[in-house]
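#struct-pred
JK: can someone run the complex with pyridoxal-5'-phosphate? inputs below
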Amino acid sequence: MTIELLRTPGATPADDPAGRILGLRCRACGRPEALGPSYVCASCFGPLEVAYDLDVVRDGLTRATIEARPAGIWRYLELLPVAAVPARGLPVGSSPLVRAERLGAAIGIEGLLIKDDSRNPTLSFKDRAVAVAVARAVDFGMEALACASTGNLAGATAAAAAVAGLPAYVFVPADLEPAKIEHALAYGATVVPVLGTYDDVNRLCLEVADELGWGFVNINLRPFYAEGSKTLACEIAEGLGWRLPDVVVAPIASGAMFTKIARGFDELATIGLVERTPVRFVGGQADGCGPVATAFKGGGSEIEPVRTPTTIVRSLAIGNPADGRHALELARATDGSIEAIPDAATAEAIRRSARLEGIYAETAGGVTIAAAEAARRRGVIRPGDEVVALITGNGLKTPDAFRYGVEARPAEPGVPGLAPAIPASYRAFEAWLER
Ligand SMILES: *Cc1c(COP(=O)(O)O)cnc(C)c1O
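RT: done, structure tokens with the ligand placed:
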């Protein structure tokens, strides 16, 4: 399909004179649609994505241009569906890409690097996606922001709305981790606890979005939201000296981030900023809610939704992932894999990452590390591979998870596993040491 066919009358925003943003396009049937807060194809109900004129981008963007810009996701503005760097916003992105030698040795991957995205303003990678969605919502003149959240999106949306000066409505499963609910409340968001699973919450939000026209970052703003994850691909490539790694390991909830990292690499190669080299994509899901991992293992192409997720990995607990099939195809097409991780292995991986690298991950990050190890064991990751594993959220969001499966000492008061308090005397400390 040529670019010209995609050009929709009126789809170029007035403030994007170069015309690099062409509009929206259906991923399934290719039908173009004008840029706006819509997410499904009017003719085939396929998912809408942003379409760019990459020839325009190639002509105007060099490595040196990017390197001269300030840190953060807007370094890669030309690959994002926003005309200009927003006037207001949180400092998102440019997270560390670090060699993880000790953890790598422990899991048999010498060339392990961690992309530590737990350090964004609200402690998860969701800040990337939300920054782009909110920039667009402001351009569209939307008066309220909202989201259906498995946890981290709540805080990210609430904080971004606070900076933009817009009200935020955050819909969450009522039994979500309290730390994540309080996080959103702190930014002044209205939290709507909903009885049911994330998929129930999402169904309700589809209706609310239709009825009230609020800017749901991951529903009617989803094409823009999803693009934000491409900045991970850009940062990984730039961090490696404008190269692609052999393997990327990332967690999968809806599958948006996983698949958009691939799209980011593809676009970077198309505009000539990196050489097009093969990258295997390894995904991780919890085995208590792993519809994509189950499909991968079964060899089929249909994703059977999980009705009742049973896992401590709440941030990935989407039973019916919007981009599940796309994620499945990506893993297969690149000789990657999708691993189902038991909660005990997730908890063990959180402990290892913290104790060997000083990186405290939330449950999704535990899934990533355990998935890397599983993919190494089955030979998807090979000796000598350069592997980038994504820690997408901070352990402070799921404070009990690292202890899961470890014998607690319930008879003792205070923090489980912590020794009883001692008097403030050296003698007492000495006795405690010799205990
Ligand atoms: C939401 C989330 C993901 C996965 O996001 P999708 O794009 O929906 O697959 C991964 N890690 C963390 C910590 C998240 O909050």
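RT: quick notes.
The first helix runs from residue 3 to 6.
Residues 124, 126, 150, 152, 251-258, 315-316, 362, 364, 392-393 surround pyridoxal-5'-phosphate (CB under 6 Å).
JK: thanks, will look after standup
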